[in-house]
Amino acid sequence: MKPQHDNSDEPLPMVLVIDDSADVHRLLKARLRHEELQLATATDGHEGVRAVRELKPAVVLLDLDMPGMDGFEVLRVLMDDPATVHIPVIVLSGLSSAQDKVTAFDLGASDYITKPFNLTELRVRVRSALRMHRLVQMLAQRAHIDGLTGLWNRTHFDRRLEDEVAGCVRHGRPLSVAFIDIDHFKAVNDAYGHPSGDAVLQGLARILQRESRQGDAACRYGGEEFVLILPDTAPADAAAHCERIRTNLEKTVWPRHPERPVTASFGIAGSVRPGPVPAEEWIEAADRSLYEAKSGGRNRVAVCDLGIAERAPLARAG
Amino acid sequence: MAELVDLFVSELPRKIESLRAAFERGEAADLARLAHQIKGAADGYGFASITEAAAAVEGVLRRGDGGDGGPESALEAVRTQLDGLIELCARAAQGRS
C-alpha cells in the first residue's frame, strides 16, 4: 500500500456535512481545518441527498433533527441507493436516547456522535470513517483488476463493454473492440516454464498499458487472451493502433528467452457509427476477426467493419 | 477559533430578533427550529448554558403544553423559557462587545 501522504496528486477526500445550522457548519469547518479533507455543506435533508449523489463524498456527517426531511429519512434514502450505500455516515445529533442510536444504526449509520461533541473525538471518528472508506474503495477496485497483469479483468470488461456500446450508440460516436491472442503461447510455457509464460503475459500487458490513450480500456479476457475497448476509434484507426502494438511486441527481447520472439494475433470489430447491436455480437464479430488473423498465418491484424447505422429519420431531416 | 466565536456572538442579536418575531407571529414551528439550531451550535462555541436554555424552549414547544394543560399556560411556559434564552443570548452578546 502506498503511504498516505504520497498521493499528492490525488484530490483530498470529501466530507459532507448535512445540518440545518450554519453555526455548526462553521464550527466543523474550523475544527477540521487541519485534517486532510475537503468539507462541503448542505442545510437540509433534500439538499443533502442531492449533494451526496452529486459529490460522492467519502464520509457524511448527518444531523438527525432537521425540519422537512429529517436525518433518519436521509439515511433511509442513502442506504436504499446502490450508488450511496457504501458511503459511511456519521450521525451527529443532539438526540441522545438509546432508541435514537439504535434506529440510526439499524438504518445503516456507521457511527454516532452526540452534540455537543468533543472535538478530538469528532476528528478521530472522521479519520476512522475515512480509513474505512479508503479500504472499501480499494477492495472494490481490486475486484476489477487482474492480479497477474494489473489490467482490468473480465468482470470489468463485461460491464464496461455494455456501457461503451450503449454510450457510443446513443451519441453516434465510433467504437472499436480488439481481441488479442498470443501466438503459440502454450509452446512458450512448455519450452521455458510457466514463470516465463507469466513474464510474457506481463510484458504484453505493459505494452497495452503504454499504448493506451485516455478512455481506452485494456483488459485481460482470460488465459493468453486480451481485449481492448477503444471508444471514439474508427475500425481503420483501431487497426493502426493494433499494428503499433503488434510491432512493439514482435520486437520485444525477452530476458528469459532472448532467442525466441513472441507474437500475437489481433481481431477487431468496429464501426464509425454503431447501430444498436448487443455487446455479445461485438465479441462474436471481434472473435471472427481474430480467427481470420490466426488462419491467415498469425502475427497480424484483421478487421471486421460492422457498418454504419442508419441515422434516425428526424436527425436526417435536420 | 476566536474569530468564529466573535462571529457567532455578533449574530446573536439577529437571532434574538428572529426568536421574538417568531413568537409574536405565533409561528411555533419556526420558533422550535430556531431554538433547535441554537441548541446544536452554542455549546460548540463555549456557551453550554445557551444550549441548555434553547433545549428548554424547544422542549416546551415540542411537548405543546405548560404542564397543566390549557393554551394560556402553554404560551406562558414558552414565554418564560424564551425570555430565559433571550436573556442569556443578550448577556453573551454584551460581554463581547
Task: Count every beta strand of chain B, where a strand is a DSSP E run of 2 or more residues.
Answer: 0
Could you list the spans of chain A in which at least 5 consecutive residues all have pLDDT below 50? 1-8, 313-318
The count of β-strands of chain A is: 10
- Sheet with the most strands, sense and barrel status of chain A: 5 strands, parallel
Figure out the total of helices of chain A.
Answer: 11
Name the structural class of chain B: mainly alpha
Side by side, the strands of the main sheet of chain A go 2-1-3-4-5
Order of helices and strands of chain B: HHHHH
Q: Estimate the global geometry of chain A from the Cα principal axes.
A: elongated
Rg of chain B, please? 13 Å
Order of helices and strands of chain A: EHEHEHEHEHHEHHEEHEHEH
Helix count of chain B, per DSSP?
A: 5
Give the rounded overall mean pLDDT of chain A: 90
What's the end-to-end separation of chain B, in Å? Answer: 17 Å
Multimeric organization? heterodimer
Estimate the helix proportion of chain B, in percent. Answer: over 70%
Low-confidence stretches of chain B: none
Strand content of chain A: 15-25%
Structure, briefly:
The complex is a heterodimer of chains A (318) and B (97). Chain A contains eleven helices and ten strands.
